[in-house]
Amino acid sequence: MRSAFAHPAVPGRGLSRPALGTCLLGLLLTSVLCGAVRKIEYDRAQAEFDQRAVVRVAAVTRAFAEATDAARAVNLFFRASEEITRAEFDSFAQPLVARHGYLQALVFQRFVGRAERAAFEAARAAFWPGFAIRQRIRTGEPALVRAGERDRYLVNDYVAPIVGNEVTFGYDAWSNAPQRVYTQRAIDSGEPAASPIIDLLQGGGARHGVLIILPVYRPGVRPLEARERRATVIGTTEVVIDVALLVGGTLESVRLLDDDNFALSLRGPDALGNPITAYQHGSLAAPDGWWERLLDGMNLRHVEAFEIAGSPWQVVVEEQPPALGAHMAELVAMALGLVLSFAAGGLVQQRVARTRRIEALVEQRTAALERATGALRLYERAMEASANPILLVDAEQPGYPIEYANPACERTFGRPARELAGQPLKLLAGLDAEQPAMEELRRALRQQREDHALLTLHTPDGAELIGDVYVAPVRRPDGQAGHFVVTVYDVTTAKRYEAELARHAHYDTLTGLANRALLADRIERAIANAGELPVWTVLLDFDHFKLINDTLGRRAGDEALRLLATRIKGAIRPADTAARVGGDDFVLVLVGYADERQAVARIQQVRDAVAEPIQLAGQRLVLNCSAGVAAYPADGLDADTLVKHAEIAMYRAKSGGRNGVQFYAPHMNAQAFDRLALESALRHALQDEQFELHFQPQVDLASGMVVGNEALIRWRHPLLGVVRPDRFIALAEETGLIVPIGAWVLQAACRQNRRWQRAGLGPLRIAVNLSARQFAEPDLVDTVARVLGETGLPPASLEIELTESMMMADADAAIHTMECLKRMGVKLSIDDFGTGYSSLQYLKRLPVDVLKIDRSFVHDIVGNPDGAALVDAIISLAHGLRMQVIAEGVETIEQLDYLRGCGCDEVQGHVFSRPQPATRVEALLRAGRVEPAASTA
After folding, report:
1. How do residues 566-614 score in pLDDT, each as one tens digit?
2. DSSP-derived 3-state class of residue 585
3. What proportion of the chain, given as a percentage, has pLDDT over 70?
4. What is the 3-state secondary structure (H, E, C) of 831-869?
5. Dihedral, CA atoms, 583, 589, 590, 592, nearest 10 degrees?
6. Cis geometry, peptide bond prior to residue 161 (ω within 30 degrees of 0)
7. What is the bridge-based pairing of β-strands 233-242 and 262-269?
8. Which stretch of DSSP H or E encloses residue 601?
9. Confidence of residue 5 (pLDDT cuts 50, 70, 90)
10. pLDDT of 144-155, one tens digit each?
11. CB-hemisphere CA count at 13 Å for 237?
12. How far apart are CA 464 and CA 447, in angstroms?
């Protein structure tokens, strides 16, 4: 039973159910709001991060693209010229390497066969001692050893720069099986091919890199099929890229690696095609405490794939924004939701505290507003710090007036931001506001969508730049664009570089005329548009142009070529084409001329323009030219055939006396092939030991004893038989083969003469003729000394025969060389005396021991008083200068008796012996005194 004095129940002091429900509902709404704000903040951060990441990715891919462009530039350089010297390669490649610091090296790799290896290594060892074709010990190891015997090598022949890349010089890329795979892929496709990530030879294998390879085919050949490309390839050009230097150097140069919260990795294929990391900058640390883990989830990541010359690569950019800054809006929303939730619960629970809670809420909102204002200032400072121009334009006003321009606009456009404010957007294009790209941007603005276009922009001072202009709408809550953000990237330098590469690919850098590649296109176009009229292909070659380079220097020669190119271009019509295809060779493509008479008239106008006097280096020069003409369709149906036949006709014009015009005829082709076959056989004759020496005795008239022999070369070809010297000596002079052939003659003659001396046949003298090309070699004296040392022949037993014209080309240099030979003890003679300059002024200065009277004078001494008097005078002159006299070509007893009566010292000719092999001459030497033949030879 309840007591009458008990107190009623006191209501609980805890949170009431309505208040608890209000709090729970508030917390639920707060979590939804925080999730939405988190999503919005993440999307905004991701968008901003994507912009920053795209800049970094673009810098990396642009660097790889520029490296590939450099590889193409070097490859085009090789395609534009028939023969590239090491000096020309260095002068072209060194500026590219200097311009792109991440390029480790630019390389030309040459295919070398087993039979060519010895000569190739010897030629390179002449300027790089110890040169040898080398290969890796094993794949993946940087150590190199001498390459084993194989049928084919792909050797690093030209390397620029050589400093820092010495280890790669002579490296055989064909010995590396993985490298051979992608090299073969480039050869078969004709396109650049990239290697997987490899360990570079430079740096002992500690550096990773990529090779970009392009094939170089035989000049003048345009292979279309893989089989043809394999048959005509002569080598490859290669760009060696240090990946770490390319990526790190590129991004560091534009200060894109300064952010500690930023990480970038570059992934590419290894030798098996598996993706591996080639470069890594930074890494994102895992969250440590509960607070960081709670706020984690905002890591930003951008992945972009691209190709390097057909090889797949991937760039991964990551960023961890500051936890507090990245979640600021979320924290504000959370705080606001919690405050509202507890405020509502507190309102129900304790209405008394309502005013105090409202005041606290106002304070919190004020703080949030200040933080938001600070964030806006941060965004504004970021735009002002941007290196690229950024504009904010009004999307609703006519002309899209500019409302905001960052400071970079003044640096780029030359206009202060205050002058740009209120101006229409088209102001940036200047006078060219109606260019097609501008209309594309107007269309994007009208449609309120993102777009970009390349615009030509103008500054107030008249400067022109090319900008990649991006527009993006800034939309209001209703979805309509209220403003547009316009970002401008200055790509002027890149576009000018592309234009320069295109110009170098089609035009000669010296004269500005079309080059060989563009010439073929012009001929094909002319043929396509010819109709019933012929197309005339004319090859011009300036006669004796080499003298300008030899006497006035290369610079004067280049100036002459530029002047002649201007004259040629001025002498033809605009519809015609003039091209320089190498050296002093020019090609004309003439259209619209119905017959040979009209074509010759135009060619003569060109030749007359060329023949006008030239003032060059203080000299007044007159140049003539020889022209060869081939006509479509009579002489060829394509560009290569027409140029080849015009060249054959030009050579016929030169061989016919120069300074003329020669039209192609079919029989010329057979003669050209015969000369080509002879030249090819001559190049193998020395290696295949097809040369032999014959010797003609020189007899002392006083004693009748053989005192010496003249060595004369003979060529015995297995198919052509015995080839006359007058048929191949001039060809050897022209091709430069006379130098190794002459060295062989000198070595073989000295060795044979020393063999005779050791056999007890007396202190015989051996006479060897030197060509003008040999005499001009800078190492002639060293070569003679080496041969004498190797054979053991005394210097006094060697007589070197020179011609007057050879010595008069550069008398002072010739006298210096002769004095060096004389100090060595070698005897010197003037061959064919009287047929050259015969300058007595120089004759008394020359350190000569012997004069050889030419056979044309000896032939006239019997029955011709004038000829006899001339020979008598030569003998008296020689003896007066303390020289001996040898008469060559003595064929009769009468000639022999007359020479003996005139006091001639020695003779040689058929009256004693024809030139014979060493075995037959040795019989004469053992006989001692020789008697003249009773009849004429």
Report:
1. 998 888 888 888 898 888 889 999 988 888 888 888 888 888 888 888 8
2. strand
3. 85
4. EEECCCCCCHHHHCCCCCCEEEECHHHHHCCCCCHHHHH
5. -170
6. yes
7. unpaired
8. helix 596-610
9. very low
10. 888 889 889 999
11. 24
12. 29
Sorted by sequence, the CB contacts under 8 Å of residue 193 that are 6+ apart come out as 182, 183, 185, 186, 212, 213, 214, 309, 310, 311
> Is the whole model's pTM more than 0.70, yes or no?
no
- Quick count: other Cβ atoms within 10 Å of Cβ 121? 19
Of 245, 275, 277, 276, give the one whose Cα is nearest residue 263. 277
Structure tokens at 36: 């939405």
Q: Are 803 and 831 in contact (CB under 8 A)?
A: yes
Token pair for 161: 């720069």
- CA torsion sign, 480 to 485 to 486 to 491? negative
Nearest alpha carbon to residue 589 among 520, 649, 536: 536
Secondary structure (3-state) at 133? coil
CA distance 809 to 59: 59
CA distance 303 to 295: 23
Per residue in 867-907, pLDDT (tens digit) is 888 888 888 888 988 899 999 999 999 989 899 989 999 99
Report CA torsion sign: 256, 259, 260, 265.
Answer: negative
Amino acid at 592: G
346-349: long-range pairs with CB below 8 Å, 24+: 346/19, 348/16, 348/18, 348/19, 348/22, 349/15, 349/16, 349/19
Whole-number pLDDT of residue 754: 94
How far, in Å, CA of 105 to CA of 201, rounded? 11
d(CA 97, CA 74): 11
**Structure tokens belonging to residue 452:** 């970009």
User: Which tokens belong to 592?
Assistant: 């619209």
pLDDT in tens, 799-841: 999 887 676 656 778 888 889 999 999 999 988 776 655 556 6
Strands 144-146 and 134-136: antiparallel
The tokens 């001025």 sit on which residue? 570
Most confident among 339-348, 483-492, 663-672 (mean pLDDT): 483-492
As a whole number of angstroms, the distance between CA 76 and CA 574 comes to 27
**Could you report the per-residue pLDDT of 394-408, keeping only the tens digit for each?**
877 887 888 788 787
